[in-house]
Design brief:
The complex is a heterodimer of chains A (about 525) and B (about 425). Chain A contains 25 helices and four strands. Chain A has about 525 residues and is mainly α. Among the domains of chain A are: about 60 residues, no CATH class; about 190 residues, no CATH class. In chain A, the strands form two sheets. Chain A has a two-stranded antiparallel ribbon with strand order 1-2. A two-stranded antiparallel sheet of chain A has the order 3-4. The radius of gyration of chain A is 24 Å and the shape is globular. Chain B has three domains: about 80 residues, no CATH class; about 70 residues, ATP-grasp fold, A domain (Dna Ligase, domain 1, 2-Layer Sandwich); about 230 residues, D-amino Acid Aminotransferase, Chain A, domain 1 (2-Layer Sandwich). Chain B is globular and about 65 Å long. Classes of the chains: A mainly alpha (about 525), B alpha+beta (about 425). At the A-B interface, helix 15 of A face strand 11 and helix 11 of B.
Amino acid sequence: MDEGSELSLTIAQIVQRLKGSHLHSQIERQAKECLHQPDIKLESLKEDVRNFLKTSGWERKLQNAVYRELHIQLPPSHPTAPPEHLKEPLAYMRKAQATWEKRVQKSLNSMSTELGVPLARMRPAVEQRELTNKWNEMGTDEPDLSRFRPVYAPKDFLEVLISLRNPNHDSSEDISIRSHWGLIQVPLNVRDIPQLRRAFSELSLNTGQLGIDDNSHIHPDLFENDYVQIGKKVVMEQDSAAAQQYSKQGCPTGLRADLWALILNATNQPQDVMHYEQLKAGVIQHDLLVDNLIYKDVKLTASNDDFYFVFEDFLYQVLLCFSRDTAVLEHFNYNSATPPKSYIKGKVGDEECAVVYPPNGVIPFHGFSMYVAPLCFLYNKPSKLYSVFREMYIRYFFRLHSISSSPSGIVSLCLQFERLLQTHLPQLFYHLRQIEAQPLRIAFKWMVRAFSGYLSTDQLLLLWDRILGYDSLEVVAVLAAAVFAFRSENLMEVTSLASAEAVLADLSTLKVMPLIQIFLFATAI
Amino acid sequence: MSKHKTSAYKGSCNYGRSEEREGRSCVRYKCGLFNTIQDVLRQRPNWVEVKDDGEWDFNWCDVGWLRENFDHTFMEEHVRINHFRNHYELTRKNLMVKNLKRYQKTLERDIGRMESSKCDFFPCTFALPSEYHLFVEEFNRSPGSIWIMKPVAKSQGKGIFLFKKLKDIMDWRKNGRGTEEQKDGAQVESYVVQCYIEKPYLINGRKFDLRVYVLVTSYLPLKAWLYRDGFARFSSTRFSLSSIDDKYMHLTNVSVQKTAPDYDPEKGCKWQMQQLRRYLTAKHGREMVETLFKEMDNIFVRSLLSVQKIIINDKHCFELYGYDILLDQNLKPWLIEVNASPSHTASSQEDYEMKYRLLQDTLNVVDMEGRLTGKEKRVGGYDLMWNDGPVYKEDVNLQTFGSSRFTANTHLGCVNDREKQLRQLLRPSLFQKKM
């Protein structure tokens, strides 16, 4: 397919998606209403209306919506490719993902049977009223969660990734010093430092960054003040693409909330608020088994965190609604995962009696709530917090717990991390391998959560600025490698996995941007 | 346990930087408290504890000892003690309010309403029983508002309760001021009644207050330092006006929280000041937060100015105050109280380390070792906030004089890179001319 027809196909797809959307009807209404204005002339109607839409900011809103569609668009493909190929082109990955999903779902169903708790039940009126009153303080509830176990933990998922093999790749001839020392044994194409330097050029030593050049010892006139001024302009212009480009060098604390909302096009329109209220009503009406998993996860992770414990209630409000949001199902078009189905009692196997469970197709695992926790720092209104989180999930976070060949997928990130380490810190990698402390076993839990809960919040937000700015999770793999590089001296001295874990147990004092910058731009290649 | 150590002071060197302050080669200290301060004193190089009646150069005492012994203790020139004789003028709730009101009236009379309105940072307060009638007048003027009753000299949240109706305190007066006093058999003490701040700033439905540390090394002239670290103490339950009797929800003292039934010591109900400042900046933007912190500086300085002429100034004395500040939903800070003996017991490892650093830097400022010139604007985590006048970040000299862009030299909630600063400050150098 040549570029021209690819482009027109893309345009057609986007038009299709935006047609009939709320934005479409709003713009139409604006166009109709502007006809009353005196400066709109009949002779130059088209021109004048276009100009009006431009000056009133509606064109910008449309631009932002189109930009957003480009982010979640399916990659270009052959016209006869079946839909599974669009989700994940490699068959063996699809198979592995399907097997994993079956396991997870089985675990969920057996928990339901063992504990005698239905997957879903309607709440009696009394309970509904109680929950409505307690909506803003669900954290005060202390339900008995001891019987519930998380469906899986990141380390279970790691074992699955380690066992991935490409059946077409004969790796027997590779047993040599040039072979891969790490745990991930699939031949994916991951970028190395020279390519990363080109891709992440704004992080170079010569370019000003937040997280480095806003240090208290550096006079703010040298970088920070001007940068903040530019940021204010970007927010005023309400331009998604500009905000994304700006974010590559970091977002100032006072502007971050607006900038991220712009990048994600989470505008919190009345219809978004209404959608959230509907989800809330759904939570009140029905109780889902996964709700208990969410409660347990929040209590085990965020509530025990010195910083995030304050946001406990927000987390429930967001995650419980998230479970019921069928709009999330859309992202399965480009996610290698498939939403798990459940069957109405007694009708197992009958496709007509199958429902997606949970309604959003995402089964929470241990640590899931940490995807939301840092966002509580930025947004006050639950509906806005929800919109931002949902968009971040369907653009980035889903890739961290599904098996796919995407460069931002967890498999590629793990492989990239290991390759970076092996290529640039071979002595360290060899040593750790010898003492049976495979680096990925330590770094995996950081990457699955995009470092949430491991870094101090301000540093984490600087990292997530770059994820949004570069529309890629690769920076997470780079940071993981950079952390090992930073602590390599101490790691060379350890003699067991436990001591290696201890050296890397506390990342809360790390400054991420200098680490990333040095690793990418100051490593000798 | 923290491994922080001040840079080693070579005992025999005595720079004799100024005529009045000779450095000590060995400091004999007395310490009446058993918590973080003990560790800090013990680990300071060349500081030796004296027991019982030995002579001491430095005394970190509790207010009880001070009350009993200060007046009959002769202190040589170099000796330092950690309280002012009549500190209670600032730290007892009724006296603090009395002094603030008087100061405010003086300002209004001498300068004008504009200036005195800068003292509008304490909630309407009356001392009981002496101002009971004034209180009733004010109470009737604002029906439906909630008031809080606090015993004047108690700490850690003891004896405090809220009420809405006059009837509630009439009952209380009749019953001999509640059962707690009856248990003690103590004398009925004075109380203050204060307008309760009904719309506090909440973070995710939780109320919190701020603890800020201010060190005063002299009242005449007034010299005060502000520490960069501090913390926000959260109530462990959600805030709601409907349950006035829930003592645990309205009071945020850690001591009270510790007795609440759902208190989880592992949970940690504190945020470091830096975390709070960042959170507020993310939510409200830089300008609003800078205004808020400027207003807090104003509270510290004016509260000290209000007692400046009353506190018996004594060159032997210094005092570390713990200020309790509450924010309302408009991000206006309110002064709740000032503590002369802020708790140095730590509630967690992080907390211990912060208090350790605080106390270490306090000793650095007091400077028994004579290492400072007296011209420093920053010592470790302390920034000089007031030195007989406002202190600015920028140097005021002939070139900058007349410029309006002066910023205050305070950094509450900002980065505290004290170790680096201390290393540079206390670098022993025979070539440094510091006279």
